[in-house]
Amino acid sequence: MRSTLVSTALVGVLAVTLSAVPAEAEPVKSKEYVVLYGEGVTTAKARAAVKAAGGTIVDENAVLGVATVTSDEAGFTDAVASSGALDGAAENRAVGYVPKTPRAANPAEDVEKVRGTGKSPKAKGKSEPLDNLQWDMAQIDAAAAHKVTKGSKDVLVGIMDTGVDAYHPDIRPNFDFKLSRNFTVDLPADANGTEIDGACADDPDGSCEDPATVDENEHGTHVASTIASPSNGEGIAGVAPNVRIVNLRTGQDSGYFFLKPTLDALAYAADNGVDVVNMSYYVDPWLWNCSANPADSADEQEQQRVIVRAANRALNYAHRKGVTLVAAAGNDLVDYTKTNEDSGPDYATFPGQQPRPREVPASCVSIPSEGDHVIPVSSTGISERKAYYSSFGKGYVAVAAPGGDKVDTADKHVDDAVGIWAAYPESVGRASGSIAADGTPTVPWVVKQGDAYYQSLQGTSMASPHAAGVAALIVSRYGKRDRANGGLTYSPDLVEARLRRTAVPHPCPAPATFTYEWYTRGGALSTSTQTCEGSRSNNGFYGNGIINAFRAVK
Fold it and tell me: Is the pLDDT of residue 322 over 70?
């Protein structure tokens, strides 16, 4: 867990290993690793090297040269490191997480789920019943863009998240049932017995293997809805209401992300004609991965190097095959270009493992947001100020987009109306108590419209899908026929260039060092002082500016 973390965003963090040293008389327990094959090494030679090191391959992605391997050999990682055919091994741990709570804000509150105490807003929309709540679409000029294009059914947007509720009325018309996949298996508990996803028998379907049509977390459905809820008169319309949604489930119900599923999902997206992938998560146990941080052991350094290499291999593969990669910048209230503090792991892989703090230099990288070819997106509130929780950094943030800031209000108190409203799975609402037995919302951040439910969230996880939606509009407007997969395709480099070039420049605040003040749900005053560096057209808070859908497609 990052010590300055605010997030609840599914912005995941790649995990590193903290090796436990077994007692002398105790047998070494089998562990699971992600093994990276050497570049240019044949699959047969790599498999033989894994076997020689004492490992057993249980799953393999030959396209990327990555395998899931089990081994009970204490020296397995050393054997892999000394092999000329393999490029390293890392324990298969949580890679990311839906953003968590930054200590700088309020340890009792999750940034994405900060809640107000007022009444639910009323529907007054015209074209869509709830469009009066969608200040975010006005901020990016979506209505004007939709007069040019609402997107094309030939454009696919992959949602790498906790899943998508395919049967929500504002999701189903655009959900691709054929291409959607679940790359995860629910994990009941960690090595300390701490609940992760819960008992399989307690799952709604009584299984740890969920279909690719459900979201038992809520995060992925909200993201998908922001991108591509259709203009159907049900509730809201997304940024690109005519494109198709492909569920690439890589997150656990709990919000953790493991390395191998994220790699598999990226390769699958690349091989199946997905045009844009949204990644609103970051990696655990560490937010930042360091190759030579003195605060880490040699084993930890090697594991982090492997994680970054593996992730970049998958990101590069997807980019080469035409996938535009968009990610949340993080909900940590910190400048990613400076030295920061990190803490982890949150998820124990051996009994007794506990998180520890460490200092991380700017050379360390967060995955996926600082991965190759990824477009990191910071978050804005209704006033266009950078959201208080949003991470930042000149040269790190590419563009900004509305992600909600519930304390971007005149009195600095929480107002759910200025969060981002999007689809909410009814099953999750009933399980959490946000929806009563008679179907009535019990909290002000949830509204019912017709037979469907919608909720207000905030976070860079909510900003990123706005940018992904505009990217999908760009592919729809300028894409060419994809001869390999059908549909349309457009160079990711050209998509990013247009996204940046058509963003509306926004200067740093004056003075550039700005102190945010807001009241927590409990009434306590919180503050965070942050410094914006750069020019009007390229700075640490907004990158090249706030995205603009109309300018991107006109």
Answer: yes
Q: Domain 97-149+157-553: what homologous superfamily?
A: Peptidase S8/S53 domain (3.40.50.200)
Question: Would residue 168 show up in a list of annotated catalytic residues for this protein?
Answer: no
Nearest to 168 by CA among 241, 222, 217: 222
From 87, 161, 203, 416, active-site residue = 161
- In what helix (H) or strand (E) does residue 399 lie, and over which residues does it extend? strand 399-402
State the pTM of this model: 0.91
In whole angstroms, give the CA distance from residue 68 to residue 55.
Answer: 10
The per-residue pLDDT for 77 is 93
User: Regarding predicted confidence, which is higher, 182 or 3?
Assistant: 182
Residues forming CATH 3.30.70.80 domain(s) in the chain: 31-92
Helix (H, G, I), strand (E, B) or coil at 340: strand
Residue 30 DSSP symbol? P
**Cα–Cα dist 547/550, whole Å:** 9
DSSP 467-526: HHHHHHHHHHHH-EE-TTTSSEE--HHHHHHHHHHTSB--PPPSSSEEEEEEE-TTS-EE
Structure tokens of 360?
């991380």
In whole angstroms, give the CA distance from residue 317 to residue 64. Answer: 8
Catalytic residue among 7, 152, 434, 461, which? 461
**Residue 254 annotated to the active site:** no
Angle at 4 between CA 507 and CA 443, to 5 degrees: 85
285-to-115, 219, 343 alpha-carbon distances in Å: 27, 20, 8
The fold of the 31-92 domain, in CATH, is: Alpha-Beta Plaits (3.30.70)
Q: Give the up-direction half-sphere exposure of residue 155: CA atoms within 13 A in the CB hemisphere.
A: 30
Question: Rounded to whole angstroms, how far apart are CA atoms 411 and 398?
Answer: 31
Ranges in the chain annotated CATH 3.40.50.200: 97-149+157-553
What confidence category does residue 165 fall into, taking pLDDT thresholds of 50, 70 and 90?
very high
Q: Which residue in the list 219, 222, 319, 506 is annotated as catalytic?
A: 219
Please check whether residue 58 is in contact with residue 68, taking contact to mean a CB–CB distance below 8 angstroms.
yes
Q: How high is the mean pLDDT of the chain?
A: 89
Percent of the chain exceeding pLDDT 70 equals 88
The answer to whether the beta carbons of residues 36 and 309 sit under 8 Å apart is yes
- For residue range 332-367, list pLDDT tens digits in order: 999 999 999 988 776 777 788 888 899 999 999 999
